Structures are given as structure tokens and as C-alpha cells.
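Researcher: I'm preparing a figure for a lab meeting and need a structural model of a single chain. I don't have an experimental structure, so a prediction will have to do for now. The sequence is pasted below. Please return the structure as C-alpha cells so I can convert it later.
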Amino acid sequence: MLKTGLRTRIFILFVIVSIGGLILLNNVVQSKHRNIHEAMEQMELSSQLREIRQHSHEDSLKAQSLMRNFNEAKAVVNIALSDSRTMSSVVLLIIIVASTVTFIIALSRISKPLRELKNATEQIRQGNFSVHLPETGIPEMRELKNSFNVMSRELEAVQTRLLVAEKEMIWKDLSRILAHEIKNPLTPIQLAIQRLEERLETDPERVKDILKESISIITQEIENLRLLAQDFSNYAKVNQPATESFNPAQSIRDILKSYLQDYEIQLALEDGITIKFDKTHFYQIVTNILQNAMDASEEKKGIAIKLYKERSYAVLSIQDQGKGIDAGDLQRIFEPYFSRKSKGTGLGLALVKKLCDANSTIIRVKSKPGEGSEFTLIIEAEAA
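Model: Understood. Here is the structure written out cell by cell.
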């Protein structure tokens, strides 16, 4: 069904009303003309001719002159009526054209500011609060534009304040988290160095006894600091995915080569599945979920990884037998900086969610305390 805008509906209404009114006026004029014409047709001279006694030739001439003058007058009246009818039609046509043109001009003057307002509100909806309308047009429209500009300036000021407050809050949270996370590895580094200094002062000959252990501690904590910086860097720079077609089963096997010697991992991978995904993002997603599963799992409890096709999707499941996640925490595990672990930034699963969204992938989590957790990725598979 064809949808008409406000201007079209108003114009159609104007045409109906104006043309209808003019047609009605024309009918009235034409009706008057017809009445006059009919009256002229019905006019008789019998009463006047009866008063004239036609006993002589002179009386007959008078009668003929009277009839001739009457017919001439009647013809003149008929011509005048015809001219009047034509003139009234021309005048009505001119009125219709002039009123239509006037209405179109007036409607354009009204509709143009409305279009400007519509475009400006669309820009505001998209977040551009700096839009400003020229305060022109009829007084009512100028007042409306002025109110809009005042609102726009106020929204822009509020947006600026909110952005400043948000940045300050982000920096405060980031500073707090960084200070907390950096303090954790710095403490054992400091203790190891203090032990070395004390041994150098008290018994320099036996420094070698604790040197290897102290170096190992310092090296490990420096590695923790490097991983901490890497977590923050990875979360901050999620780029537009560079997708490519590949076999996820083979990629998972390649990822697990460095884990299989130290962890019990059960694999059930279906070959023949192809996905279009950013391969680096896929590696980051799998390794982060896998590391989370290893951190959560108790010793001698395995991790199960399944890959299978369901309809037009590739489904990847990573399940651990760890402590599980509380129902209250389950809704927050993808929030940045949220973590119940003693170590870590809380950015690992937040990065996973961000990368899944970037690659149009659904991620689901099922978990019960004491029964472990299962992370499931639903990825659109390429047709075979």
C-alpha cells in the first residue's frame, strides 16, 4: 500500500476543498445565468402588443419596431451571458492556479524547516549534539528552531561532562587495577632481592644456595608482569577481523601441542568443517578459554574439547571439571576486570567476548558450583 507523507495529504486536502469550493461557486454562477436565460426565453410581448390597436399601417410599423428592438435586446443579453460564462470560467481557472501556486510556496516554506528538524534530530540520535539550525522562517518556526538549538547545546554540554567523567572513572579503575596487579609480582621480587642482600651481608659464601631459587622467582614474576601488560594490550587493540577460511579442528590440534604433555585433555574433533574467521582471534579465544579451564580444574581432572557440526554451524565446546561458577557471578564473567581468581586481570574472558562479537560468534556458558564449567562457541560454518 502506497504511503503518503504529511505534505502530500495536506496538498490533496487543499485540492479537494479548493476545487470543490470553486466548482460549487461556478455552479451557482451558471445557475444564475441559466435562470436569466430561461427568463429571457419566456418573455412575451403579447400584453404590450394588445395595448396597441393595429387599425392602421402606423400601428403595424410600431409593433414590428417593438418586436425588432426586443429581439435585438434579447440577442445582446444572450451574448453578454455567454461572455459572462466564459469570463467566469477563466477567472475561476486563474483563481485555482494562483491559489495552488500560493499554497505550494507556503507549504514549501513550512516543510523545509520540518525537513531540517528531521535531519537534525537524526544527527542527534546518532550522537552528534553539535548540530545547529539557522533560526529562519515564520515566527513559530523560528521559536521552534531556537528551542531545538538550546536543547542541542544543553545535550552537547551534558555529553562533554559525561565523557570527561567516564574517562576519569576509567582511568581511576585502571590505575587501581594496575596498582593491585603490579603489586602482586613486585612483592615476591622485593622479598627475593632482600633475601639475597641479607645473605650477602651475613654469609656471602652461601649466596649461591639461594641464588638459583631467587632468580627463578624474579624471572617468574617478571613473566607475570609481561603477561599482565599483554592482557591489557590485547584487550585494548581488538582490530577489525581479517577473516579467512580454515579447518578449526586442525587449528585446535596445533594450539594444544604445548599443553598435552602437562594436562589431560580429551579430544572429540570432527574434521571436514570449515569456518571463515580471524585465525589470530580464534587462537586468542581458544587459548584464553583453555587457560581459564586449566586454572579452574583441580589436579588429575581432565578437560574435554568437542567440535562438531550442527545444521549450518560449527559448535566448539570446552568443558572443565573444576569448582564451577556461582550463579551470581555467571552473569558477570565477561565484564572487564571481573575475576574471582587470586591471579589475573579479569580481562581474559572479557577479551574472549569482545573477539566473539567482532567475528559474529555466539558464546554460551553453563556452570554449576562443584561440577565445572562449559564454554560453547557457535560459529557459522561454510557450506561444504
